[in-house]
Design goal:
This protein has about 190 residues and is α+β, with helices and mostly antiparallel strands. It has five helices and eight strands, in the order ββααβββαβαββα.
Length: about 190
């Protein structure tokens, strides 16, 4: 079952990052990375053509309280987002008695290849398992998205099944891998 999530008051710090709820003042930073072609498309949404699109997304992030802004400590810019989304319970009926969520993420192209996303995802995994007592997490990626695949691997996610993902904003149906991380596997990996 999908666990309840509210990150509005939660702040997570890593060596290089601060993860916190989005604020109205993040609009320009969000638009700066979301307007770059290829960034959104890798996650299933079209890059933003104007700041009004980013404003709608920002308002949604603030309202729903389930998406962290990823702030780079060095320059205090928001460089990405990490969402704790509802997973499709119909696709995973075997988890109906367990608490879980799906995570999804996007990072400014300027910061790709620096190990920042595994750092952010690992910190959020720890929060979800240790503080919110979730039992499992799922995370998917398009088969063509090798960067997201590497983040999944570095963070301990294991292949669970292949799915057809309907990227409605892109008017595409895309083959994807759905990966799974169980709390007990994560704890065993930490030992």
């Amino acid at each position: 079952m999908n666990a309840s999530i509210d990150i509005e008051q939660k702040v997570i710090e890593t060596d290089r990052l601060i993860l916190r709820a989005f604020k109205d003042t993040d609009l320009n930073d969000l638009f700066e990375y979301a307007k770059v072609e290829g960034v959104g498309e890798a996650a299933g949404w079209p890059h933003h053509k104007d700041i009004a699109t980013s404003k709608v997304i920002l308002d949604s992030f603030i309202q729903h309280k389930k998406v962290f802004a990823i702030v780079y400590k060095e320059n205090q810019k928001v460089i990405g987002s990490l969402g704790i989304e509802k997973y499709k319970e119909k696709e995973l009926p075997e988890f109906k008695d367990l608490k879980g969520r799906e995570i999804g993420y996007v990072l400014s192209k300027e910061y790709w290849g620096k190990g920042l996303m595994p750092e952010a995802v690992s910190a959020v995994i720890q929060y979800l398992f240790e503080e919110l007592s979730l039992d499992f997490l799922v995370c998917g990626y398009y088969k063509t998205n090798t960067q997201s695949k590497r983040v999944n691997e570095k963070c301990g996610f294991q292949f669970y099944k292949e799915i057809q993902y309907e990227a409605t904003q892109l008017n595409q149906s895309i083959l994807a891998n759905l990966n799974l991380l169980r709390k007990e596997e994560w704890y065993n990996g930490k030992l």
